[in-house]
Amino acid sequence: MKARVRYAPSPTGLQHIGSVRTALFNYLFARSVGGDFILRLEDTDRTRSQDVYVKNLYDTFRWLGFYWDEGPDVGGPVGPYTQSERFALYREHAERLVDMGKAYYCFCSDDKSAAKDAEKAGLAQEQPEQEGDAQASGGFGYPRTCRGLDPAEAKRRAAAGEPHVIRLKIPLDGVTGFDDILLGRIEWKNADVNPDPVLLKSDGFPTYHLANVVDDHLMGITHVMRAQEWIPSAPLHMIMYEAFGWEPPKLCHLPMVLGDDGHKLSKRHGATAVDEFRKRGYLEAALINYVAMLGCSYEDGRDLYSLEDLARLFSMDHINKAPAVFDYVKLEWFNGQYIRMLSDEELAARIAPFMAEAGLIAAEPGAAEAAKLLAAAPLVKERLKYLSDAPEALRFLFAEPAVPPVEELLPKKMDAAGAARALGLAVELLGANDPADHDGCEAAFRAGAAEAGLKLGDLLMPLRVAVTGTKVSPPLFQSIAVLGKEAAIARAEKALAALKAAI
């Protein structure tokens, strides 16, 4: 049987690292075995589901560069792929369970009032008595008040329009279990399972559990890879599969992703929404490479993998049981490695939006700006941690910095007079040499410094600050070549005038 897996997000928030890891593992598994990867939108929470989150979902995965084979936007043989368009299917299957005696109509207004009515009627003994059982069943849960109603009478009341829900009959004794691919055998006493949960609400909306099971079956899902926080839902789903007489998919509950403090990764740990990583200048390839390694191993001795490599090497056998820790320092290293792997043309294209946002180039740069950016890209390739670092590193090439304060122009142990002498010599040497000939220009400055009795660093430092506005910059002569020698000399002469005025 061909493997079919799904990513089934609820469009109630932005895509975050944990959900992307789940989607990526499903995608890699599907590709590794020649299977299908499916997107299903579980939008039954109509109060929180929003179109903006659906758009964010599509935008995120288009940016990341891996996509589904079937889904709401691409179609497929078992659609629709949005749960709000499948309500008739859910009602049909809920009613089928009632007809099979596996579910029943409930006319209680809510669980709390039903529990109070049951207590008054002396039915409280039906509730679990152990503290652990009470917690497992959500604080005792529903007391099964309507479970004993005559089915024919209940059907008549429902047909007459009396408000009702449909509840699943949880077995009163016995054990429910399944074999998790990663965690092994997991079992629950049925007495510990939430008593008779609602499958179909009074407004006709399905609960997550009904829609999830029906859709996985009808869509032919063979494997479900999801976070371990969904383990408590598993016994209910297994009971439902058995009630329908369906074979359940194989389950693999993935380890959690933790922050460096040992708690579940959340906003307090920094940017966990994928949009934030994109805005901060991470490359999608770096993010995919790192996220793929959160709780999974591939080949020894390697850190960098293409998406194709990951798909070829992925195996559920290599998933770790222990939680994975999200390490921003490690991700930063990955990002730097992938930045350095870009061609100059690719890097220029990647940093252009950040330069435009900083107001340094036009949103649609002209030929001159584009050429200058392309020439500037290699100057910072080895220095960037994030694409968003580029505007600050290259600002001096696209906007003239203010004349630096005199104290910024002074090398260590040198006064304004000494700095003026050094900067004056630097201007002469720059005028006499071609900065495009980096090696030749450096040799001329080295010889000039020796003849003047100066250290090379003391000769270059005032020029660097005058031209770039900072003591730390990309390689100086290469930068001047991109800026233009005349512009560099003009900036240096302004700084020289300020030094002379301070003597």
Give a verbal description of the structure:
- This protein has 4 domains: 4-82 and 258-328, 3-Layer(aba) Sandwich (Rossmann fold), CATH 3.40.50; 86-254, Rossmann fold (3-Layer(aba) Sandwich), CATH 3.40.50.620; 343-398, Helicase, Ruva Protein, domain 3 (Orthogonal Bundle); 406-502, Arc Repressor Mutant, subunit A.
- It has 503 residues and is mainly α.
- A 3-stranded antiparallel beta sheet has the order 3-4-7. A two-stranded parallel sheet has the order 1-2.
- The protein contains 20 helices and 11 strands.
- The model is unreliable at 115-139 (pLDDT under 50).
- Helix content is 46%, strand content 9%.
- The chain is elongated, with a radius of gyration of 33 Å.
- Helix 17 packs across helix 18 and helix 18 (456-468) packs across helix 20 (485-502).
- The protein has helices spanning 17-32, 51-64, 87-99, 111-120, 131-136, 151-159, 208-218, 234-244, 274-279, 284-292, 307-313, 328-340, 344-357, 367-380, 390-398, 416-432, 438-452, 456-468, 476-483, 485-502; strands spanning 4-7, 36-39, 103-106, 165-168, 175-180, 184-189, 198-200, 223-227, 250-254, 257-258, 324-325.
